[in-house]
Amino acid sequence: MTQITVRPTTPDDTSKWPKGDHWSNDRGTKFHNPWESYAYPSFWSLMKAAYAMMSTKDPTRAQAKTLIPHITNPDFGKSLNEYGKEGELKATWLGHASVLVEFPTVPSSSSGPTGLMSTSTAGAQSVQGGGKRGVRVLFDPVLGEGMAFWGLGPKRESSNPCKIPSLPQIDIIAISHNHYDHLDLPTLSSVFASQKETYGSEPVLFLPLNNRHVVSGLGLGGGKEGGGGGRGEGKVIELDWWEGRRVVVDGVGEVEMTCTPCQHTSARYPWDRDKSLWSSWVAKDVGPGVTNPTSVFFGGDTGYCALHSHPNPFHLPPPPSLPYCPAFKDIGDKLGPFTLGLIPIGAYFPTESMSGMHVSPGDSVKIFQDTKCKQALGIHWGTFRMTPERFTEPPEMLAAAVREAGLDDGVFGVCGIGETRGYS
C-alpha cells in the first residue's frame, strides 16, 4: 500500500481570509464569474444553439472511431521510459478532458537533505525518491461509453482507449467542476474500487468548493488531512481558488496542487446552477530531490471572451476591443511558467451562446500565452458531440490559430486518444 500525505500550502483557517469576489454569498454555496468577459447565454441564444445542434449534420461523427487517432492499448509512457525519458513529464490523453499526467521519476538519494521526507500516520519518516515512477495525477476522468445523466447524455463517439482496471496506480484525481462530462460518478467509483483492489490504496480526490456532496455516495469520507490510510481519511479535499495542498507520495515524489480560477459555470440539475465552484488546476513537481521541476496547467472547461453575436471566424482570437478573462494572466504571473498546458479547444459553436464558457481554438492560444505555458496539448474535443462543429474541426482551427499567433510549429497541438507524449 502506498502512503499518501496531504499538507496545506495555504493557511488552514480560511475564515480569516476575505471571501473572493467570485463568492455570491457568505457561506460559499453560490458562485459567479467576476469578470466582464463572462455573459451567461440568453434564452434565445440557447434556443438557437439547440436548433443548430438538431439541424446540423456532422459528416465526421459516424466516422469518429477512424478519423480521431487513437491507441487501443496505451502503455502510459512505459515505452518512453525504455528510451531514457524518465526525466520527462508524461501526459496521456484519454479523450475529452481526461488526461493522466506522470511527473518525472525522482532520482534516488541515500542522504536525508536531498531525499523527500514524509511523515506517516504513525509518525515514522521515510526517505523518498529513486522509485520506478513519478507521481501520477488524473484530471477529469470520464472513461465510460457515455455520461451518467439518467442515460440521456451524449455517448462516446470515438474510441475508448482503455478499461479502468488497466490504469496504472494513480495518486491524485483532480476534478474541474461538476458537469457530467467532467465529473462522472460511475468512472470515479470504478477507479477507486480498481485502485484499491489492485494496489491496496486509493487516490486523493481534489474538488473545487462545495462539490463534496456530489461524491458523497462514493463512501470516500470527509476532509481530514495529513493522513492517507483508508477510506474517509484524507481522501476528499475541497479548495477555493488560489488555495493549495502539497501531496507527498511515499517512495515516489511530491506534488503541489493549486486550485486556480477559470471562466465557467456548474450544475448537475436545473435547480443547482453555480452552487458549486468550478476551477482550473496547477500541479507542480516539488521537493528537495527535484533538480529540474516540471509543472502542469490544466484548463478544465473555460471561456475566455463572450463574443455575443460577433460574427465568425470563430477560430481567431477575440477582437481586442472586447474584455477577456484576466484570470489566466494572473495564473501565469503567480504560478507560471508551466512545462505543459492542457487547454480545451472544442465545444465552441455557436459563439453567441458558447463563447462565455467555452473557448474557441483562438481563445485557447491566448490562454496558452497568458499562462506562460512552454508547450500545450489540446483537450476537450473529438469524444462527445457537445456542439455542432465537426468532430475534426477543432485541431484544424487550432493549427490556424497557432499560425496566426506566429507560434512555432508543434508548440501547441493535439495527440491521439490513448497516446502518451513526453515534455521537458
From TrEMBL:
Highest taxon in the source lineage: Eukaryota
Residues that, per the record, bind an N-acyl-1,2-diacyl-sn-glycero-3-phosphoethanolamine: Y180, H358
Biased composition range(s): Basic and acidic residues: 13-28
A Pfam family per the record: Lactamase_B_2
Positions of region (Disordered): 1-28
Listed Polar residues bias regions: 1-12
GO CC list: cytoplasm
Any GO BP annotation: N-acylphosphatidylethanolamine metabolic process
GO MF annotation, one: N-acylphosphatidylethanolamine-specific phospholipase D activity
Domain Metallo-beta-lactamase intervals: 136-381
Protein name as it appears in the record: Metallo-beta-lactamase domain-containing protein
Organism per entry: Cryptococcus amylolentus CBS 6039
